[in-house]
Amino acid sequence: MTTNTSDIRSSYAYKTATNRLGLWLFLLSDSFVFAGLLVSRFYLLGNTRPHLEQTLGLIVTAMLLVSSFFMNRAETAVANGDQKTFLNGTLITLILGIVFLIGVVGVEWQLAPFSAAEDVHGAVFYMMTGMHAFHVLTGVIFLAIVYRNGRKGLYSAEKHWQVEAAAVYWHFIDVVWIFFYPALYLIGKVVG
Amino acid sequence: MKHFIFVAILVAILTVVVGFGLDAIGLMPELASLQGVVIDQLFRMHIWVISFLFALIIGFMLYSIVIFRRKKGEEGEGDHFEGNTGLEIAWTIVPLGIVLYFAFLGSTALAETRRADPNAQNITVVGQQWSWRFEYTDYGFSSDELRLPIDQQALLLLKSADVIHSFWVPEFRVKQDALPGDGMERELRVTPTKLGTYKLRCAELCGTQHAYMLADVIVMEPDQFDEWVEDQLASVSDDPVERGEVWYGQYGCQACHSIDGSDRVGPSWFGLYGKEETLADGTTLVVDDLYLHESIVEPQAKVVQGFETVLMPPTGQSMTDQQIQDVIEFIKSLGE
Amino acid sequence: MTNQKVNIFSLSLIRGMVFQVFGTLVGMGVVMLIRLLMGLSAWNAEPVWVGGAFIGVITFLVGTGAFRDWTKMAFGEQVSEHLEVDPNQPGWAKYFNISYDHKVIGIQYGVTSVLLLVTAGTFALIFRTELAAAGLQLLELNMFNTLIGLHGMVMIASILLGVGAMSNYLVPLLIGASDMAFPRLNAFAYWINVPGAVLVVSSLFLGGFDTGWTGYPPLSARAPLGMQMFFMGVYFIGFSSILGALNIIVTTLRMRVKGMGLFKMPIFVWAAASTALISLTATQLIGLSFQMVMFQRLFGMGFFDPAKGGNVILFQHLFWFYSHPAVYVFILPGLGIISELLPVFARKPLFGYKWIAMSSLGIALVGFFVWAHHMFTSGMAEYLRVPFMYSTMLVAIPTGVKFFSWVGTMWRGKMTFETPMLFTLGAVSIFLLGGLTGPPNATVATDLHLHDTYWIVGHFHATMFGGFIFPFFAAIYYWFPKITGKMYNEKLGKWHFWLMFPAFYVQSLGQMRVGLLGMRRRIADYDPALNFDFSHLLITIAGFVIATAVLIFIINAIHSLRKGEIAPSNPWNSRSPEFFLPSPIPEHNYTDYPFEVVGEPYDYGLADAPFVKFDSVPGAAAD
Question: Could you tell me the fold of the domain covering B240-333?
Answer without folding.
Answer: Cytochrome Bc1 Complex; Chain D, domain 2 (1.10.760)
